[in-house]
Write a structure and sequence with these properties.
Order of helices and strands: EHEHEHEHEHEHHEHH
Helix content: 40-55%
Number of helices: 9
Strand order of the largest sheet: 3-2-1-4-5-6-7
Number of strands: 7
CATH architecture: 3-Layer(aba) Sandwich
Distance between the termini: 51 Å
Shape: globular
CATH class: Alpha Beta
Bound molecules: NADP nicotinamide-adenine-dinucleotide phosphate
Largest sheet: 7 strands, parallel
CATH superfamily: NAD(P)-binding Rossmann-like Domain
């Protein structure tokens, strides 16, 4: 059985990855994973590809074990893995709820590493892995410190694995979007946050996902970004100091 796996499929970018999947993958089943079972069931309305609904909290190690057991039992040929589930929390680093703070590491980093490791065993030449990082991976972001660090990890991890997976014919790419219009920002806001308030341009999920699939299947990019301003800022940052970048970011937050 040929399958694709999408984590965090119940909303935002993950839902859009599923919606656009039939243009890019020809599989027997897509395994969709996130916590909310009802939202996962509703995904059956937006695709004609058969879905395997897998409601799991990926911050829990036993959830990862369950996926591993399922892989061992079914021994599928995995054509595509999209490690998309993730969240942020905005605010002072020592005031963010500790469970939320560490949960970002568990989900954005640990679950992504474990799934990449386990799922890639069931991949053959031609398979693809898309690791959802963020534009945050490129620069320090005060008041989003843990989130920023998790996404810098994802970008670096992906770039290194690119070389390791290439001889096996497996293509891995990090997606680094700027702000996207999903539930992400409202979920990231906290009562104590008065620091992360200015978002600038917010993109729609459909354009980000369209570009991501194109970069994954048609181009040989290791890192995919979208939007002139993102590309311009990433370019400029190569020539300025870290302190300049931090100062520029903090000044931009005062615009609101
Ligand atoms: N939106 C942005 O501005 C932006 C920018 C850059 C990068 N990103 C990245 O894009 C990815 C998708 O985010 P989004 O913008 O689409 O936000 P979203 O609408 O909040 O979607 C997040 C997804 O992750 C799932 N999820 C959250 N916690 C989970 C857990 N513990 N176990 C399993 N699934 C979990 C959610 O489903 P349940 O709640 O049902 O579990 C949901 O499906 C994230 O990795 C995020 O860091 C977003």
């Amino acid at each position: 059985m040929e399958i694709a796996i999408i984590t965090g499929a119940s909303s935002g970018l993950g839902r859009e990855f599923l919606f656009q999947a039939n243009k890019w993958v020809n599989v027997d089943e897509i395994w969709v994973i996130s916590r909310n079972e009802k939202s996962l069931e509703e995904l059956k309305l937006i695709t004609n590809i058969p879905l395997r609904i897998i409601p799991l909290d990926l911050t829990k190690e036993k959830s990862i074990s369950k996926i591993n057991e399922l892989l061992e039992k079914e021994s599928p040929d995995v054509k595509l893995l999209i490690n998309n589930a993730g969240y942020a929390k905005f605010g002072d680093f020592d005031k963010i709820d500790l469970e939320d703070d560490l949960g970002m590491i568990d989900l954005n980093v640990k679950a992504l590493v474990l799934l990449t490791r386990y799922v890639s065993k069931y991949m053959s030449s031609g398979a693809k892995i898309l690791e959802v990082a963020s534009r945050a991976a490129f620069q320090p972001i005060p008041y989003m410190a843990t989130y920023q660090a998790t996404k810098a990890f994802v970008k670096g991890y992906t770039e290194s694995l690119y070389a390791e997976l290439k001889p096996r014919g497996i293509r891995i790419m990090a997606l680094c979007p700027s702000w996207v219009n999903t539930k992400f920002i409202s979920r990231a806001d906290t009562k104590q946050n008065d620091k992360v308030r200015y978002y600038g341009k917010i993109y729609e999920a459909d354009v980000i996902v369209k570009r991501a699939y194109r970069d994954l299947y048609r181009r040989s990019k290791i890192v995919s970004t979208y939007g002139f301003n993102v590309k311009f800022v990433n370019f400029i940052m190569k020539f300025v100091t870290t302190k300049f970048v931090i100062g520029y970011y903090l000044r931009s937050q005062k615009k609101k």
